[in-house]
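Protein modeling request. Please complete all fields; requests missing the sequence field cannot be processed.
Requester role: graduate student
Desired output: 3D structure, token encoding
Chains: 1
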Amino acid sequence: MIYDIELNSAAHYPVAGIVEISPLIEQAGFGAFWKGESNSTDPLVLLSGIAARTKTLKLGTAIYHIYGRSAVTLGIQSATLQDMSEGRLLLGLGVANKTIAGWHGGTFDRPLRRIREYMEIVRKTAAGERVEYKGEIYDTGQRFQLSWKPSYPNFPIYLAGLGPKMTTLTGEISDGVFINMATPAMVREIAGRVRDGAVAAGRDPNTIDIITKVRVSLHPDRVVARSRLRQVLTFYNIADHYKDMLIASGFEPEVNAVQEAFKKGGFKTAQEQITDAYMDKLPVIPGTSIGEIKERLESFAEAGATRLVVPYVPVAEPVIDDARRFVDAWGNAK
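Delivered output (334 residues):
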């Protein structure tokens, strides 16, 4: 099993601090560093800083959405980071939602077609091919081509997927699926749909990566380890798409309780509905040791995950120091 890390959950980690500890992340044995995008720091800018400080650590976007830049621009950025890092990019893409699309003046519609066309343009651009793409949604115009020949033109592209149509498409056209906030049972279900999509497209399903996020906290006192995870879980219980997946996973009474509390009393009141019993059923681990965290991650591997990303949720300030302690503990537990 490949274990990766993300520092992006429940807190703002200062980017200079992340770049500073990135060699320690590499030394601790993590396979990749992942960075997501919404209104937080930019993934590829941060990954470029990490690339300059590391040698083997893979550099992943989880998830870069398709509304923040044109597909040609992302192709240029990807080719640049590939050359800078000597081929370490793992590009995760997603269609985001209406809110994020609106931030960038975009329209959230036809997500399956949009992600297919966007991905095709990114691949062509980053490979140094001539791009004159005329799709149903995207039109790149005439005669675009990179001014240099990329040294590392090929890299994996993963798609964020939850629902049946997107996960089937993921198996058809991408290198793997990126799954967030899913129980082992849901991971198994999504992995099955992705692999079915691969088979239907004439692809080998065993070549498709199943990348799964499981948020963790670490503290000798489990009450402290739970503290900020409660905040994260409250957000996902009221967020579009994720609340629906949690309901589909069998947690309708719990999700409804959080939703009602949120309507009546706001976020802090909703947070009180994330009980310890509910938390322990969800894909988060309030760990008291690295050994316990790894043991509890095994069920996700058994469900079909091929890479496990552990976004670290800090429990103490300054958060970058807490993250450093987690990284050190992970490395010393090898």
